[in-house]
Design a protein that fits this description.
The chain folds into two domains: about 140 residues, Glycosyl transferase family 10, N-terminal domain (Rossmann fold, 3-Layer(aba) Sandwich), CATH 3.40.50; about 150 residues, 3-Layer(aba) Sandwich (Rossmann fold). Helix content is about 30%, strand content about 15%. It contains eight helices and eleven strands. β1, α1 and β2 form a beta-alpha-beta unit. The longest helix has 24 residues. The N and C termini lie far apart (about 65 Å).
């Protein structure tokens, strides 16, 4: 196996590289040495430590954040772009324990599935996601939506096992924290594994990833009211609901390009065989530093003017 010397930085506080999907994926093909003086750094959007490294840098992120190519050599994230140094890997496609092959050629379900199902659930911890909260309140006017997270909890307890909890429902509110083309997380992905219908808001071109006949897609409706009318229709028509659940997750029941592990392997070969000068050893980071300072100065000036 080819040996690679890598490190991870600027991830969230609880991040453990051993539990990370990319690390696990790489370990099947490469002899990995975790070294704080790496040849290749994988970094995310939760800090600025990556700026001190002088090696090749791979921006690896599942958040709604753009890669800065003045600071990185390669990017692996959800963005749609045609750069040769970028691979589109939405967060759902790197969800540990939720392999896409499981969703192919699934057996058909029947109406017996619905006998003990409750209406809809809601799990949220971000109190600033106003679109999600607005929808929760509006749908709750039809029937109670069981909320087991931090936000608008109406169960009296916090859900500890997400998958065990959501499998007992017909629908789940699967709104992203924000909307941007291609930004798709586990929120729509996990419900597919327990045969329920996600109610989705997020990427306006989600049809690039999934068969939109398999879920309720906000972006196909002209208003929240129209979408809620569709949900009510499905809730009261078992035949129509089961038809939706039995639709393939992927178009034509074939994995999309973003779940293609062979393509990702080829991209890593490109990364680990590069001979180009690392961006960190060029003048580009100085330009990036100047741009950041200019933006910070502009923000401070705006705040100062607002306070006057």
């Amino acid at each position: 196996m080819t040996k690679i010397k890598i490190f991870f930085d600027d991830f969230w506080p609880e991040f453990d590289y051993k539990n990370d999907w990319i690390y696990q994926f790489l370990s099947k093909t490469y002899d990995i040495e975790i070294n704080p003086s790496p040849d290749f750094l994988f970094y995310s959007s939760f800090g600025k430590n990556h700026l001190k490294y002088k090696c090749y840098k791979v921006f690896y992120c599942g958040e709604n954040v753009r890669p800065n190519y003045l600071d990185c050599d390669f990017s692996i994230c959800f963005d749609f772009n045609n750069r040769e140094n970028h691979f589109r890997l939405p967060l759902y496609a790197s969800s540990v324990g939720f392999e896409p092959e499981y969703l192919l050629n699934k057996p058909k379900l029947n109406k017996e599935l619905l006998k003990d199902k409750k209406f809809c659930c809601f799990l949220a911890s971000n109190e600033r996601a106003k679109e999600r909260i607005e929808f929760f309140k509006k749908l709750s006017q039809y029937k109670q939506v069981d909320s087991g997270g931090i936000v608008h909890n109406n169960l009296g307890f916090r859900v500890s096992d997400k998958m065990k909890f959501i499998k007992d429902y017909k629908f789940i509110v699967a709104f992203e924290n924000s909307s941007y083309p291609g930004y798709i997380t586990e929120k729509i992905w996990h419900p597919f594994f327990v045969d329920i219908v996600p109610i989705y808001w997020g990427s306006p071109n989600v049809q690039e990833d999934f068969n939109t006949a398999r879920f309720v897609n906000y972006h196909e409706f002209s208003s929240l009211d129209n979408m809620i009318n569709k949900i009510i229709e499905l809730d009261n028509d078992d035949e129509q609901y089961i038809k939706m659940v039995n639709e393939p997750v992927f178009i034509n029941d074939k994995l999309n390009a973003y779940c293609d592990r062979e393509e990702l392997k080829r991209f890593f070969v490109k990364i680990f065989s590069t001979k180009a000068l690392p961006v960190s050893q060029t003048w580009w980071p100085y330009l990036s530093f100047f741009i950041r300072k200019s933006k910070n100065a502009k923000i401070k000036l705006i705040k100062l003017l607002k306070n006057e």
